Model the fold of this input.
Amino acid sequence: MAGTKITVETVLHALGDPTRRAIVELLSQRPHSVTYLAEPLGITLTAVGQHLQILQDAGLAYTEKVGRVRVCRLETKGLVVLEEWARDRRSLWEQRLDELSRLLQEE
Done:
């Protein structure tokens, strides 16, 4: 999915699934093989691959083949998109609350 812009919708969709959140948590500790990820989650290698594809599309994971093993790593591009979105919303809500406070003080 090279060149495709990562959207907040894609990131939120990817993180909306508990299995994918668990994969992100595991990868936040250190890189893992697909086989290692499947075991504690109790899912097949195929299922891990499908979840990883969604995480990769959302900029949350990266996989590479090292010898005969596919190694997965945490990718932060999607987290940056999510952080920027949250920061923009926070700024907007802070402005609205400041305006509400100003209006209430006038009364």
About this structure: The chain has one domain: 8-106.
